[in-house]
Structures are given as structure tokens and as C-alpha cells.
Amino acid sequence: MHSFKSKIIAGVALILSAGFAHAEDTIRLGMTPEPYMPFTQVNAAGEWEGLEADLSRAVCEKMKIKCDIKQMAWDGLIPSLNEKKVDFIIGAFSITDDRRKVVDFSTPYYTEGTSFVGAKSDTTKIATVDAPDGSGKIVDPSIVSGKIIGVQTSSVQAAYVAKYLKGAEAKSYDTADNSVADLVAGRVDYVLIPDLYIQTFLKSPAGADYEVKLEVPKNTTLGEGVAYAIRKDDANTLGKVNGALAELNKDGTTQKLVDKWIFGKK
């Protein structure tokens, strides 16, 4: 994940949901205001919107806890969690083995794919081969050797390029939007990027000359679903979040939000 210019609002805490008024009934949720739809953004009115914003409101209501939102850049979310500045975080985090070394994950609320995107004028056929580690099919590294591939820093896509596409040059960006901007500017040959995010760009006038070259086969490096991240020593918060998610799955709320924000169903 992530997006255009980070609009960090220093020292501002927004309340996502109503709950008990006492401090001991407040939980700190780390989120980023960088636009990354359909997951989340802060709109022109200063309101949080998107799948993760609505889901977090529902989670906090189920926990009967007031959620105090701490805004920060996406790549600062995990460090802030482990520095105990927040209690849990959300930001289209894919569950991976590497991330499991530093955080615990809730049950996933969505499974996201990855797209390999380039210019329509580029006639290179992006194909797949068997992964050397036996994890299934991967992008054929010989085809993209010597190419520049834009990825968001600290993302599962960056990890994928580092692991499987060593002959290519990975160019890292603080936001997904900046990687796409450099694709348009011709500074990178391709971007490896979450599929939901790139679809918005491809449907826009700016994306008219670009296309998905390959829907990258699912792979453990690319994650096992999208979830909240919780500090490893905080079983209490993990239990509360998973309990709330279980209730939201049972009553159909999670699916309704996915249908609304991901699939555009009213």
C-alpha cells in the first residue's frame, strides 16, 4: 500500500466511535490519512471514509471502547505500535511471515491481490515460472531483468521483488501514488502494486495508456490476507479485536462493508 502526499495532522486525535468516557476505556488506533481507497482516506470535510474507517468504527462499537485515532505516515505505523504509542494499527497490512516476527495479526478482514502494471505500448509478455522455493508460480525474473520496478517501501510487493526478481532494480517510494507518478513520468518500467488500488488509477484519464500486464499469482511473500496489527505482548487487545471481528463476521457487517467499498454495492 499507499498514496499521494501524506497529510499528517500533528497532535490531532480524532474519535472514531462512541463508547465509555473514562480513560481506561479508551484504546489508541494508528491510521494514516494518506488516501488509499477503497481502504481509507480523510476526505475534504476532514472525515475518515473507506472500508477500514467504517470497519474500525464497527470494531470499536463492538468492543464498547472509545477509539482515539493517532494519525501518522504509513511506514511509521508498525514502529509506533512497538514503541507503545498506539495499541493497534490498520493500514491494508498483509499478513506475512516477516511481519509476524515483529507484530501479531488479527483474523483477516479481506484478501488482496497484486498486479504487475506497465504501459500499453510495452509489448513485453510478462509470464510466470515455478518459484525456486516451491511456493508456486512467480513472475519470470528473466523477463524483467534489468528493468526498474516501482514499489512502496516496506510493502509485501517490495519484499517480493527483493526475493524473486533480483535481476531487476526495485525503486522504493513512500507512497503508492508516487510510484505510479513515476511510472507515468517514465522513471520506472513497471509498478508492482495492490490490485484494488491500481484499478482506480487505470479507470482514470491518467491511466488510459497503462494496463495490468499480469495478475501476480498468490504467494506467501505477498501475504495471507489483510488484518489489524497488534503488539506481540498485548494478548488482551488481540482478543478484543478478534472478538469484535468475529461478531461482525457473524452478523454480516464485514461482508456488507466489503460489498460497499470494494465492489460498489449499495
From TrEMBL:
<protein>
    <submittedName>
        <fullName>Polar amino acid transport system substrate-binding protein</fullName>
    </submittedName>
</protein>
<dbReference type="InterPro" id="IPR001638">
    <property type="entry name" value="Solute-binding_3/MltF_N"/>
</dbReference>
<dbReference type="Pfam" id="PF00497">
    <property type="entry name" value="SBP_bac_3"/>
</dbReference>
<keyword id="KW-0732">Signal</keyword>
<feature type="domain" description="Solute-binding protein family 3/N-terminal">
    <location>
        <begin position="26"/>
        <end position="265"/>
    </location>
</feature>
<feature type="signal peptide">
    <location>
        <begin position="1"/>
        <end position="23"/>
    </location>
</feature>
<dbReference type="GO" id="GO:0042597">
    <property type="term" value="C:periplasmic space"/>
</dbReference>
